[in-house]
Structure formats: structure tokens, C-alpha cells
Design goal:
By secondary structure, this protein is an alpha/beta fold. It has eight helices and eight strands. Strands 1-8-7-6-5-4-3-2 form an eight-stranded parallel beta sheet. Helix 2 packs parallel to helix 3 and helix 6 packs parallel to helix 8. The structure holds D-xylitol-5-phosphate (DX5) and zinc ion (ZN). D-xylitol-5-phosphate (DX5) binds next to strand 2, strand 8 and helix 7.
Length: 229
């Protein structure tokens, strides 16, 4: 397998989350964000155990892979994610993110994702001690900081998030490695500037883009709040 996910490039990446897209017209929504200049497509996978909601499986990733050239940023909100690494890689994920809090060997999962030939991310929930990331910091390509408790789109940005992002930015800089710092949950034109100032360089947005009256305008507003760093 190969990954289309770019290396950290000093620019802000915007990743619309299709959790908030209209699945009946998914193609139209994907084309819309492609044309609006989205960098990646964020795909939320939920198992009803790690989070109290269900969403998609590898089949959706496989369908997207054939139809879009955007890198597929797949966020696994599942218990024991190791079971699903190969199916999602075969389906066409360019990057797989597992949760540090999932009941699994996260260090082993990161190594397995790399063995499968794609990039690896690790995510933390809002109340997880960021120092726990030290076990994976020398291996990961991306750290995903949740700015809401995962499970649902359309929640409000938690005010504790900027501090957590700053702490993760400090850890990344101290590692001396190029690691994306992605943020997810409650990101919109108002919160984008705050998270970038705190150190984020990849922004996931679901409701703010797909539920807007004009998704192209909404994506551009997030970009404008998020000038190149
Ligand atoms: C939440 C998901 C998010 C979600 C974000 O658990 O991980 O990716 O789609 O949605 P918004 O941007 O609406 O908060
Ligand atoms: Zn997500």
C-alpha cells in the first residue's frame, strides 16, 4: 500500500469530516469540498463501544478511494483498533489514527500501520494526559487532539482545548520530528484562529462545512481564519 498523505509542509491543512455530509448526495458533497480546496477527507469510524455511536466501515472508504483524489484521513474511534488496520488499509486509507485510550497495544498498532505501508496517527480525548503520548512520539506521523468528547458531530468546542493543543505542540517540537498536529471537534471560522495560534496545523471540520448554507464559503472562512503559518 502507499499513502498520499503529505509530509508536514508548513501550511494549514483543512480536512472536512463526512460524518456531517448528506449521505444521499455524498458524491455532490465530496466534489464540493474538493473544488473548495479541501486538503484531506476525514472519515470517522465509530463502533458503538469506544464511543456511543455507530458510523461507517471499510466499504465506504473503498468507495471513496475510487472516486476522490483527496488523501483519506481515517479516524478509528473503536476498541481494539488493531483488528481493523488491515481492512481499512486495503480499503484505501492514506492515514489511520487510533486512540491512545483504546484497549489495545497502541505502540504496536502504530508499527503495524507503518508495516502496512501508510501513515499513522494517535488521538487523545480532551481529558487524557498529553504526557502519555511520549510512548509513541518517536513513531507517529500525526497527533489528533480532540476538542470535544468523540462520538458526535456538531458539538461545541471545549474551552480547555487550546491549553491541550499547546502542550502537544511543545511535545512535538521537543521531539524534533515533523508530526502533524490535527484538531477535531467544534472547529469553525470562530475557533480556527484559536487552535492555529495554539499550534494546530491540520483542522477537521464537519458541521461547520457540510451543514452550512454555502459549504464553499464556510471552508474558505475557516481558511481565512487560518492563514498559512
Ligand atoms: C467527532 C468526530 C469528528 C466530527 C467533528 O467524534 O471525530 O470528526 O465529525 O464534527 P464537528 O466539526 O461537527 O464538530
Ligand atoms: Zn474525527
Amino acid at each position: 500500500m502507499t499513502s498520499k498523505m503529505p509530509a508536514v509542509n508548513g501550511r494549514i491543512s483543512v480536512a472536512p469530516s463526512i460524518l456531517s455530509a448528506d449521505l444521499f448526495r455524498l458524491e455532490k458533497d465530496v466534489r464540493c469540498v474538493e473544488q473548495a480546496g479541501a486538503d484531506w477527507l476525514h472519515v470517522d469510524i465509530m463502533d458503538g463501544h469506544f464511543v456511543p455511536n455507530l458510523s461507517f466501515g471499510p466499504a465506504l472508504v473503498s468507495s471513496l478511494k475510487g472516486q476522490t483524489t483527496l488523501p483519506l484521513d481515517v479516524h478509528l474511534m473503536v476498541e481494539k483498533p488493531t483488528r481493523f488496520l488491515e481492512p481499512f488499509t486495503k480499503a484505501g486509507a492514506d492515514l489511520l489514527t487510533v486512540h491512545l485510550e483504546s484497549a489495545d497495544d497502541v505502540v504496536g498498532a502504530v508499527k503495524e500501520i507503518h508495516r502496512l505501508g501508510i501513515q499513522a496517527g494517535v488521538s487523545i480525548k480532551p481529558d487524557t494526559d498529553p504526557q502519555r503520548l511520549s510512548s509513541v512520539i518517536n513513531d507517529v506521523d500525526l497527533i489528533l487532539v480532540m476538542c470535544v468528547y468523540p462520538g458526535f458531530g456538531g458539538q461545541s468546542f471545549l474551552p480547555s482545548s487550546p491549553r491541550l493543543i499547546e502542550q502537544v505542540r511543545t511535545l512535538i517540537n521537543a521531539s524534533g520530528r515533523k508530526i502533524w498536529l490535527e484538531v477535531d471537534g467544534g472547529i469553525n471560522a470562530q475557533t480556527a484562529g484559536t487552535v492555529i495560534k495554539a499550534g494546530a496545523d491540520a483542522l477537521v471540520a464537519g458541521h461547520a462545512i457540510f451543514r452550512a448554507a454555502d459549504p464553499v464559503r464556510a471552508l474558505n472562512q475557516i481558511r481565512q481564519a487560518a492563514p498559512d503559518i
